[in-house]
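We modelled the chain as a single entity of 320 amino acids. Its sequence is:
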Amino acid sequence: MSSTTASAAPRPADPQARPAVKAPVSPRSAKRRRQLAQWGFIAPAVIFMALFFGYPLVRNIVMSFQDYSPSTFFTGEAPFNGFDNWKNVFQDGLFGKALWQTILFTIGSLVGQFCIGLALAVFFTRRFPLNGILRSLILLPWLVPMVVSGIVWRRIFDQDTGVLNSFLGVFGVGETPWLTSTSVALISVILVNIWIGIPFNMVILYGGLQEVPKEMHEAAALDGASAWRTFRSVTLPMLKPVITVVLVLGFMSTVKILDLVLALTDGGPADSTQTLGTLTYQNSFVQMDFGAGAVVGNILILISAVFAVFYLRVNRNEGK
């Protein structure tokens, strides 16, 4: 008896059969997916800001209300002392002196950097040979590390062997104690900071001048306006957003300056160049009073935050 295996013939495809269709995604699910994708892109920046900016800021605020001393590193104990650190800082005469000198230093630096930077930016808008090379050379002070600039200028300002006094001596000018006189030292530090900040101001303002339409200048010339009147009535108003950026960023980098002052005078002579930045350093790492240093640091953060909010508000109003 023999057995036969019959293979079933495949069924013909149904011409009316439709391909499988995925279930439609609800609007709520689609919205949730978009939000997850957005948070996925934002999360790395949020984590970075929280770890390297948020935590140090909160820790500094807490430290300003603690008796934080070198022994804390070994015992881990930092007793809460309320507002004692704040009272000690505000009652210290050096804080008021450092605050006033910070104001003078910041205003003097910003005015000098802005005026000279704007003058150079206007100058370089004209075409002449070696224009690009000169603009590149002017950037050098900005590219050199601030500590290096401070050391170089300290040698230049040296009362006995400095190049500046040697040069002025040719014209009969006596030796000037640029960094050792309580009445001249702060001016010398301001001059060095102006020299460092001129390139930044020039570059930003030069870029802003390139965006001013030439038709505006041509129209002003046809109306008989002088060069000064054109600059005051046409160029400066068009530069207002750029000027705001330059001044606010310049303020935020100048008000907390530390390395330049340490390299030039170390806050001396007789605390005549002490600023809030150097006072924070002195309290924290020289006197080892970390609570007082945290107080001065918080005041600097508060000042910078106020001007940051001002900067954002001005930009928002300009955008409207």
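As a brief sanity check on the tokenised model: Confidence is low (pLDDT under 50) at residues 1-7. The radius of gyration is 32 Å.
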